[in-house]
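Quick illustration, no need to memorize.
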Amino acid sequence: MKFIGIIPARYQSTRFPGKPLAMIDNKPMIQWVYENVAKAVDEVWVATDDKRIFNVVEGFGGNAVETLSTHQSGTDRCAEAALKIAEKTDFDIVINVQGDEPFIQPSQIEMLKSCFTTDADIATLIKRIETSEELFNPNRPKVVTDNQQNALYFSRSSIPFVRGFENENWILEQTFWAHIGMYAYKADVLQKISKLKQGVLEKAESLEQLRWLENGFKIKTAVTEHQSIGIDTPEDLIQALQLLKNKLVF
């Protein structure tokens, strides 16, 4: 199988405009993402609607493809980019990595790749929840799986419900899993899911992966020990720079 990485990258951001071009140790953030993804896949492409990002990527020798500015999600941007990339090269699996995760671990991508030794349509990562604070945080999506680690459901609520115990004791009685928002898709599946309409579950939870489950696509999960470090605000960037200075990330 041939694996490619596609990194959706927008310039416009409500909380941090231009963040893909923010400098981290003399390199733009998008270059950090690109170089780390390149350690684990056959080719990497940045999908962007902004000429500034496009030019920076080509400037450091990377591959970039222009996409529309109207996409509602990174998945949709990846789908358009994949169609254009397919005119230049063949591939079987698309790895979707967010452009604001400069310290992504190549080992996480390898875990996604390993999911396609099965009949998975889509793959994603999960991480064990260690605290009640995380468990009951609606901004931290949770997932339950079957015995083969296929996703059964994703929710902003704490799932499963632990009957007979106070909330603060749930973490002691049950293993809970957080969803890490990194995906891989079979090339044909990516095009199919990009054409689906929102379902009732996605509208309720505001989680796009529920659209895929509602339509019968199989999402395989793999367990990671690494917590993704996403940069959503200038304050997040300051923290990331401190982690780098203290050598807490590579």
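The chain is about 30% helix and 20% strand.
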